Model the fold of this input.
Amino acid sequence: MLKILIIGGTAEAVIIAKELEKRGIYIILSYAGITENIDPPIENFRIGGFGGVEGMKKFIAEKGVTHILDASHPFSKIITINSIVAAQMAKVDYIGFERKKWEKEKEDSWRFVSDVNKAVKLINNEDRIFATIGNKEIRFLNRKPKPFYLIRMITEPTDKINLENFEIIFDRGPFERESEINIMRKYSINKLITKNSGSFAVFGKIQAARELGVEVIMIERPALPGRKVFTNAEEVVQFFSHLA
Done:
């Protein structure tokens, strides 16, 4: 019997899980538990970590999982590596899903960096920054405390913010182009720091920056091991439907 453990973290993971469940395929959708107040998307879902590779391997054996679909966030490197290794140890198939990156267009002003630390090095004291980099890495901004920062996150920061001039917006996407334009104008933003998640739900900030001439400091995705990867949710659904 086909039993798929979907490592969630993206909107596409929920879409895939729901579509496969409709087809009578046994699905377990797993969330890391970073985001609170998750509505039950399908019948079988779990929240929380596995306890590393060994914990995931044990869970796979206990539940009789036959396939792992890793649809975690493109920047969740540790989760992806653990999923690959656990699948190998448990001798089950691993499939990756990774949405396509945003592509730079001719009117864009993008500067590419490999991580948040390098992004902070491109900030000047007179800048007005819109930071959409997630909760965990806000601490890196403390290295440049003088500029103005507009910080958007979903939950309260886990680390202390030692900035001289900042404001936090607690919000969850999707974010439309017009609302992002209004925010950038209201706060006179001249630089956007963001990760290349490729998510359509937050693409509005990229469109707004393009229209307003705001410079984008684009954090590239981490390097990951070679693996079988789909970039289209419907292709994933068809792949598993043919196996059922």
